[in-house]
Amino acid sequence: MGLEKEKSDTSIIMDEDEFNRSIEPILSKKGKVYTAAPDRDPNDINAHLKVGFEDVIAEPISTHSFDRVWIGSHAAFELVKFIFYRLLTTLLAVPMAFILGVVFGVLSCIHIWLVMPVIHCFLMLLPSVQVVWRSLTDMFITPLFHSMGKSLSSIQVKTTEN
Question: Is the pLDDT of residue 58 over 70?
């Protein structure tokens, strides 16, 4: 009269169609479905800001603090970083977005309506300026450097050791 331990095997035999039909209502129920958070930095502009606790504070193998101190400091670091980031973005995100929107709007306007037309005007004028510049250098600078080269080419330098 003792307790006997038996190993029992249970199995459910279902064909694939019946299994798919029986699981469809479960899958189609609208429940909490967690999707991946959207990537807010798809171009990886701020890759240098992905700083973790181990990147800032690292204890070499030869010197370790108590485990509870390490865990507590890690938790404090992550908590303070999280809270201050959320606090500062709450206070500064909207005003900075407004200011940066104005700055980039002004810069775009200046670039489109001022800088590019001026550059295109210069590019249109440059061929004629190039002709004038080339003739001036051919008339004055080229003969000067040719004569300096001819007169200085006759100089011979000898070095002797004393």
Answer: yes
